[in-house]
Write a structure and sequence with these properties.
This protein has 530 residues and is an alpha/beta fold. The chain folds into three domains: 55 residues, Roll (Urease, subunit C, domain 1), CATH 2.30.40; 326 residues, Alpha-Beta Barrel (TIM Barrel), CATH 3.20.20; 112 residues, Diaminopimelate Epimerase, Chain A, domain 1. It is built from 18 helices and 23 strands. Helix 2 packs across helix 7, helix 10 packs parallel to helix 11 and helix 13 packs across helix 16. Bound molecules: zinc ion. Zinc ion binds next to loops. The site of zinc ion has 4 residues, from loops.
């Protein structure tokens, strides 16, 4: 019934007003108010216009604060990060002695129980070589010890851990995956050999595991992440996330990529994408090579600081082609880890056989750290999407050039050149390799400097992104790289009201002050979660 002549205002849940709201829509609109209803953005505009049109149940005065769409990490390891919260933190250890000290400080382990640490990096030690396990064997004869390098591609295992796996099995791995000295394993394992021993570590179950995932989520929400892409999960882990989301235990949006194992291929890929409001399963993760820090990234020519190696290919071209076929036939995206220029070239070529030309399948190359300048154009020709990690440039800048030499630096961490290929790019952290903090991703992407402001002019500063592009790479383009741009990544009518309140304006604050930015509030579907 129409009620006489009075104009009936429409109901809405929440008005956010009196601030600067960066909508990140295609025109770059900045609004001063936003209306929310049923977890969606209803409208953006001026507060007075929205007040005229709607009756609000609730209002939120920003008091001059700054609203941005929730950040989306386009490539990280959410589940792995949750597990790592229980490991001994070895990040920043300045020597192997300090690693051992931290293990001892962690207290006496129960007899036979695993000791797991994560985050050592020989590149920041005085002697920049891989350690061996001799002292671990002496200190922990009864406990299997596994120490995961910062990049996750290399581990140091003591003898008890190697025995738990069965030492003889290691003869089946590629040379380079098991580092030997005088005919004996040193305990340094990389890639597939490292994965094999990591699989031996008992994983917490039930409530304990759920608690770790909740802690990981809480850390992400506090840091301003409302969405994460988990770069490689098995079936059970995806289903656990789905279960916890459906029970309301987890609220963060998860784009779960599948490890290409038979169970995943049968239960997910063969049936097409699996999509819920909080979960997207439509991508397969492949590793083409290893990492630069460990000299397992595959280069076209040998390493400049070790001519005996060019790195390794960890998934054969034949296997990659089979997975591409499966993905292509079942509507799945392929996201392949490529660090070295040879791995990048190999995957560009293999993708091109399916993609044939311009397309909207959004097959991705993760990291694309070292690219042969002659290969950049292939990203554009086949609409292959580069996925970068802003902080990798500033974490690796002290030693990357030693690995590849000055000539190859021309195509290294070349984010602006990569962006130019398709006009958009995805950005993330690869946490727990890097810290989860998206503000630091933004800072490193635009400044190409570390937290202390070094180097003064930035590391190859011409390859940094503008603030507008950096913001897009962490919001709308990160969403697009996971096919969720219709509901996530910007604050536009009809999209999910996932947003942040910041204490300063990322787009205007001085570069030096970007890292000081604090997340004052995080909202998912219009509900405050921090
Ligand atoms: Zn990764």
């Amino acid at each position: 019934m129409i009620s006489g002549c009075t104009i009936q205002n429409k109901d809405a849940d929440l008005l956010v007003y009196n601030g600067r709201i960066y909508t990140v829509d295609s025109s770059g609109q900045v609004a001063d108010a936003m209306a929310v209803k049923n977890g969606k953005v209803l409208a953006t505009g001026t507060a007075s216009a929205l007040f005229r049109e709607y009756d609000f149940k609730d209002t939120l005065d920003l008091k001059g604060g700054f609203v941005f769409p929730g950040f989306i990490d386009a490539h990280c390891h959410f589940f792995g990060y949750a597990l790592s919260l229980q490991y001994i933190d070895l990040k920043g250890s300045s020597s192997f002695d300090e690693v051992l000290l931290r293990l001892e400080q962690a207290g006496n382990p129960k007899p036979g129980s695993w000791i797991v640490g994560r985050g050592w990096d020989q590149n920041i030690w005085p002697v920049k070589v891989f350690p061996d396990n001799q002292r671990l064997n002496q200190l922990f004869p009864e406990n299997p010890v596994l120490l995961i390098r910062i990049d996750g591609h290399v581990v140091l295992a003591n003898e008890a851990a190697l025995k738990a796996e069965g030492m003889e099995r290691f003869s089946t791995f590629q040379p380079g995956e098991v580092l030997m000295k005088n005919g004996k394993p040193t305990g340094i394992l990389s890639e597939n050999a490292a994965d094999r021993i990591r699989d031996m570590v008992p994983v917490p179950r039930g409530d304990q595991l759920a608690a770790l995932l909740r802690q990981a989520e809480s850390n992400c929400l506090n840091a301003g992440l409302t969405g994460v892409s988990d770069a490689g999960l098995d079936y059970d882990r995806v289903m656990l996330i789905d279960y916890l989301q459906k029970k309301g235990v987890l609220k963060i949006f998860v784009n779960a990529w599948l490890t290409p194992n038979p169970v995943n291929l049968e239960k997910f890929v063969a049936k097409g994408p699996y999509l819920t409001e909080c979960l997207s399963v439509r991508s397969i993760k492949i590793y083409a090579d290893g990492s630069l820090g460990s000299r397992t990234a595959r280069l076209k020519r040998p390493y400049s600081d070790d001519p005996s190696t060019s790195g390794v290919i960890v998934t054969s071209p034949d296997s990659v082609l089979k997975l591409c076929r499966l993905a292509y036939d079942h509507g799945y995206q392929i996201n392949t880890h490529c660090i070295g220029d040879s791995a990048v070239a190999m995957i560009l070529d293999l993708y091109s056989r399916f993609l044939k030309g311009r397309n909207d399948l959004r097959w991705r190359i993760e990291h694309a750290q070292i690219v042969d300048p002659r290969d950049f154009h292939l990203f554009e020709e086949y609409s292959i999407i580069p996925s970068i990690q802003g902080t990798h440039a500033t974490s690796d800048m002290k030693w990357a050039e030693r690995r590849v030499g000055s000539l190859r630096m021309e195509g290294a961490y070349a984010y602006r050149t990569l962006l130019a290929q398709n006009g958009w790019i995805a950005n993330g952290t690869d946490f727990p390799i890097e810290h989860i903090d998206p503000v630091m991703t933004f800072y490193a992407t635009v400044s190409r400097k570390d937290r202390e402001g070094n180097p003064e002019k930035g590391f190859y500063p011409e390859e940094g992104l503008s603030r507008t592009d950096a913001l897009r790479s962490m919001t709308i383009w990160a969403a697009k790289a996971g096919f969720s741009e219709k509901v996530k990544g910007s604050l536009e009518t009809g999209k999910d009201a996932d947003f942040l309140i910041l204490d300063r304006d990322l787009m205007e604050v001085s570069e030096r002050d970007i890292p000081e930015t604090r997340i004052v509030g995080t909202f998912i579907h219009g509900q405050r979660v921090k």
